[in-house]
Specification:
single chain; about 60 residues; mainly alpha
Length: about 60
């Protein structure tokens, strides 16, 4: 049984996919920032939310 041929994706399709991934990460980062803004810095959840925000920012920078 022959393998199905794989269609090569155009650069614009790849760029569109990366832009969508960056948008999703930015949305998650914005939600994490909103959560951090509501918390007091002495709250243990503040550190987790801040860390998630920091990681999301680095991932967005990698994608771009």
């Amino acid at each position: 049984m022959p393998k199905p041929t794989q269609k090569k994706r155009s650069p614009s399709e790849i760029a569109e996919e990366k832009a969508l991934a960056a948008e999703v990460m930015l949305r998650k980062a914005a939600l994490a920032y909103a959560e951090v803004a509501k918390l007091d810095s002495t709250d243990p959840r503040w550190r987790r939310c801040w860390r998630a925000l920091l990681i999301a920012a680095f991932r967005v920078a990698e994608v771009l």
